[in-house]
Amino acid sequence: MNKSMGAKIFNALNYTVLTIVGLVTLLPFIYVVIISFADPTEYLTKSLVLIPEKWSLSAYEYIFSTNAFVHAMGVSGFLAVFGTLVSLIVTSALAYVLSRKRLKGKKFFLVAILMTMLFNPGMIPNYLLVDSLGLMDSIWALILPALTSAWYVFLMKNFYQEIPDELEEAAKMDGCSDIGVFFRIMLPISVSALAAFGLFYAVAYWNTYFSGVLYINRDSLRPLQVLLQMLLISASQMADPSMAAMLESERTVPPQVIKMAAVVLSSLPIVMVYPFLQKYFVKGMMVGSVKG
């Protein structure tokens, strides 16, 4: 179809504006990556470094030479992998149970879950709950409070409701129990939804910060974002003993360069995983979003 002159002008302006917005959005991220690889002496002598004359890995070499950063990445990695796996199992299992018509007290459970979406108890009640359960300074304090999401439960519930009951009945005639139907039938056919929700859970666990500040006092259990925040706020005058070794590097690597490298390392895992799961996003987020 031949487009009118007005449509062509509109498309040209639209593409131009979107390109400019995209470049403006990407520029800070590109600058962070460039500074993290810039030579420390060049960064100190120039007011602005867009394309370094000399590239250097000194900031990354230092970061990986410190046990604090490497250990924090291990904690966040464990949260992102194990926490996501447990959250997906709990969310899908709860959604499957709530989708069954034969469940007694179904309305009560649905209302109870809905209330958690509408009313947040707040920071102090959550802190008292975690403390009363004996989870302080425990890795479970970073997993259990964020174990599932009511919104994801409702989406998964609607998805399971769209699956014909005959499929479940056929599986039971072949000898499957309710647990067998869930693991052998329901989970395999909900891969797209699990992939989409799994990435959201993984990002949330990887970015765990507030729970780490509230519930964790041990250096060995601090997630990456807490350590990164400590570095970003006071990299030059850190009083925490666990960061003392990191401060020694400031004689050879400027604190700003270390900060940029830390930001790149903390963002890299999620950036690498996202393209592989992107194809599941549209299908995964649309399933169960029409029927109530």
TrEMBL record:
Domain of life, per lineage: Bacteria
Protein name: ABC transporter permease protein YtcP
Residue intervals of the ABC transmembrane type-1 domain: 73-276
Transmembrane segments: 12-38, 68-96, 108-127, 139-160, 181-206, 257-277
SUPFAM superfamilies the UniProt entry points to: MetI-like
Keywords: Cell membrane, Membrane, Transmembrane, Transmembrane helix, Transport
Pfam (any one): BPD_transp_1
Keyword Ribosomal protein: no
Assigned protein family: Belongs to the binding-protein-dependent transport system permease family.
Cell compartment(s), UniProt: Cell membrane
Membrane topology reported for the UniProt record: Multi-pass membrane protein
Alphabetical list of InterPro entries matching this protein: MetI-like (IPR000515), MetI-like_sf (IPR035906)
The keyword Cell membrane is assigned to this record: yes
